[in-house]
Amino acid sequence: MTDLGTLGGSTSGAAAINEHGEVVGESISRSGYRGFVWRHGVMTELDSLGRETGQASSVNDHGLAAGLVSTFPDGFRATVWPTRRTGSSRSVSYRR
What we know:
Layout: E1 8-17, E2 23-29, E3 32-39, E4 42-45, E5 54-59, E6 64-70, E7 76-82, E8 90-94
Antiparallel strand pairs: 1-2, 2-3, 3-4, 5-6, 6-7, 7-8
């Protein structure tokens, strides 16, 4: 087992891992819940698109993470992040 650390808050949780050992999930930071990618021993916050809450729930072997960003009070935006800094975040509207 490996301690992934946090983004400065009290807890984090892993949701998925790919063949390259990239881990994605959610961590509490000083500014709320944030999605993260953990690569080569370093946890990096994923862009929450200016919102308070984000979480990554899956990552593929091409380095794309997928998850949700809160658009409170409207709902959530489905979001795809590049985990290897090869592009920018993309999101689409999603309401529960």
